[in-house]
UniProtKB/TrEMBL annotation:
SMART domains: cNMP, HTH_CRP. One of its GO terms (molecular function) is DNA binding. Pfam families: cNMP_binding, HTH_Crp_2. This is Global nitrogen regulator. Required for full expression of proteins subject to ammonium repression. Transcriptional activator of genes subject to nitrogen control. It comes from Microseira wollei NIES-4236. NCBIfam families: NtcA_cyano. GO terms for cellular component: cytosol. Residues 28-129 form the Cyclic nucleotide-binding domain. PROSITE patterns: CNMP_BINDING_3, HTH_CRP_1, HTH_CRP_2. CDD domains: CAP_ED, HTH_CRP.
């Protein structure tokens, strides 16, 4: 199989399985679990549509979001990185309705060995994931919930933002509860903080989609 660097990763991902075990397309409604920590790592996932939240659940019951994946992201690859067959480390949940493409981990591993160009495409996808995880850690380091919210909105602008005349619109329908879960807050607090930002003309909300009118000004206000 020949893989060109400019080919979409989704097209490549569809071809790595053999005819006996073709890639599987699955859909999940918002809030549905894709896999739990401790589940056997049997498949690698490619996100075709929507957004997926990866989080860690700690003994005290606290759940920390480590990444919010966008379309064309690869996840469920820890075993490939460590070289050992390990169980799932994260809790993967559909943050929005999602469509996933998955393939057996053995076949992905063989494709990585056989084709360096495919390995490079995967590495690029993982690099983006790692960068976002670092940004989420920085976001959760803020003790002030207002700063957490602003930091989170700026990450969403970077990864899901669509430029327009009014600013950057985050192309996700976000409930206050979903935002609260992502930043470790409560729905009541998030509702109040979003209301403050709307009063200050920093954001507007239409049909659950948030538009940040001036991301630079917003970041400066809370630096």
């Amino acid at each position: 199989m020949v893989v060109m660097q400019d080919r979409p990763l989704a097209a490549v991902f569809r071809q790595i399985s053999n005819p006996s075990f073709p890639p599987v397309v699955e859909t999940f409604e918002r809030g549905k679990t894709i896999f739990f920590p401790g589940d056997p790592a049997e498949r690698v996932y490619f996100l075709l549509k929507g957004a997926v939240k990866l989080s860690r659940v700690y003994e005290a019951g606290e759940e920390i979001t480590v990444a919010l994946l966008r379309e064309n992201s690869v996840f469920g690859v820890l075993s490939l990185i460590t070289g050992n067959r390990s169980d799932r480390f994260y809790h993967a949940v559909a943050f929005t309705p999602v469509e996933l493409l998955s393939a057996p981990i053995d076949q992905v591993e063989q494709a990585l060995k056989d084709n360096p160009e495919f390995a490079m495409l995967m590495l690029r996808g993982l690099s983006s994931r790692i960068l976002q995880t670092e940004m989420m850690i920085e976001t959760l380091a803020h003790r002030d919930m207002g700063s957490r919210l602003v930091s989170f909105l700026l990450i969403l602008c970077r990864d899901f933002g669509v430029p327009g005349a009014e600013g950057i619109t985050i192309d996700l329908k976000l409930s206050h509860q979903a935002i609260a879960e992502a930043i470790g807050s409560t729905r009541v607090t998030v509702t109040r903080l979003l209301g403050d930002l709307r009063q200050e003309k920093m954001i507007s909300i239409h049909k659950k989609k948030i538009t940040v009118h001036n991301p630079v000004a917003l970041s400066h206000q809370f630096t």
